[in-house]
Design brief:
With 342 residues, this protein is α/β, with parallel strands linked by helices. The protein folds into 3 domains: 6-45, no CATH class; 58-161 and 295-322, 3-Layer(aba) Sandwich (Rossmann fold), CATH 3.40.50; 163-291 and 325-341, Response regulator (Rossmann fold, 3-Layer(aba) Sandwich), CATH 3.40.50. It contains 11 helices and 14 strands. It has a 6-stranded parallel sheet with strand order 2-1-3-5-7-13, with helices on one face. Strand 8 (182-185), helix 7 (193-208) and strand 9 (214-216) form a beta-alpha-beta unit. Helix 1 (6-13) packs across helix 2 (17-24) and helix 1 (6-13) crosses helix 3. The chain is elongated, with a radius of gyration of 23 Å.
Length: 342
């Protein structure tokens, strides 16, 4: 006999999985008659009813994946996951990891079965963007989004990076160093929300300094097309003396391509990244970047989830974690005349 899951109960009761979850957890959001029907159906099917949770015993950790992912650990989310698992270990919480396929907009296209398991007390979702559709599939479960966003922002707890402030600081660093022609690399107007926020920070800093923005749009990764576009831009327009990149992955790739094109970093072009992944401090020249305390994001997410489990009706909050600039060797000060005429 196949295992009776939350989805089985929901289908038999003629309700959504979210409604079934709310009813079986004793939460508001369903009518008395509907709640009674769901509970009766669950008992009739032999569904394993979960006892009230005094503490989080097991959490599901959902990590976004794309169809073309090669199985390597994401340089940003790896340390976040370490923070989550460390915090859970000290609290006696079991963590179950599951890959969650997402589309090109980072919207989940498949929800792992552990979400509906009766032994799962809550979930942490890394790096996804929840539309109304996917939010419905996950609703009813205590949940925290890490570097994640939702069309129903008032429903889910989340912890994100201060992307606007971080990129503003990075751009101001270049401006203060005398650069006037600064390109933003690896964003698009329709990118993932965190990347769009970094674009906003750059625009704000350039506008405050009375400088015109310059965009080399593209995907925020080691993308061959972005590499090529950046190299072409700095070769054809030697007034560009600095680039601010959407993240460290794109910054490292573009710095490499710039040097392959016969230009020097930072002698000809200064480069700034964002995230401070491990590789940023190991390359030569070491990358100036905006640091994000990624393990702390994970630890905070666990605390937020515990709070959501214990206080399910408290309002949703968004925590924006502060960043700080780490100045290394990939940026330099230029003379005003050089920045203006090179």
């Amino acid at each position: 006999m196949s295992k009776i899951t939350l989805a089985t109960v929901a289908d038999a009761a003629g309700v959504s999985p979210a409604a079934a979850s709310l009813a079986l957890r004793g939460k508001s959001g369903v009518s008395t008659d509907t709640r009674h029907r769901i509970i009766t159906t669950a008992k009739d099917l032999g569904y394993e009813m979960r006892a009230p949770v005094g503490r989080a015993a097991t959490i599901g950790l959902l990590v976004k994946t794309h169809a073309d992912d090669n199985g390597t650990t994401n340089a940003f989310y790896g340390p976040v996951i370490s923070g989550i698992t460390d915090a859970c270990r000290t609290r006696g919480i079991d963590v179950r990891l599951a890959a969650m396929p997402v589309d090109e907009h980072f919207d989940p296209i498949e929800i792992p079965t552990l979400v509906s398991e009766p032994t799962t007390d809550g979930i942490i979702v890394l790096g996804a963007y929840l539309t109304e559709r996917s939010a419905d599939l996950l609703a009813g479960q205590p949940m925290v989004l890490v570097d994640g966003y939702s069309e129903r922002a008032d429903e889910f707890l989340s912890i994100v990076t201060d992307n606007v402030g971080g990129m503003r600081t990075a751009t101001e660093h270049l401006i203060d160093a005398g650069h006037r022609r600064i390109a933003l690399v690896g964003t698009t107007p329709g990118a993932f929300p965190s990347i769009r926020e970094r674009r906003t920070g750059y625009i704000d800093a350039m506008a405050a300094a009375g400088l015109d923005p310059l965009f080399v749009d593209g995907y925020h990764d080691d993308d061959p097309q972005l590499r090529s576009d950046v190299a072409a831009a700095v070769r054809s327009d030697r007034s560009i003396t600095a680039i601010a990149c959407a993240n460290d992955t794109s910054a490292l790739a573009c710095a490499d391509e710039i040097q392959n094109a016969g230009l020097r970093v930072p002698g000809d072009v200064s480069v700034v990244g964002f995230d401070d992944i491990d590789a940023a401090g190991r390359v030569r020249p070491a990358l100036t970047t905006v640091a994000v305390d990624k393990p702390a994001m994970g630890r905070i997410a666990v605390s937020m989830l515990r709070h959501r489990i214990d206080h399910p009706n408290d309002p949703a909050v968004v925590i924006a974690q502060r960043t700080h600039l780490v100045v290394r060797k990939s940026t330099r000060t230029v003379r005003a005349s050089t920045a203006a005429t090179t």
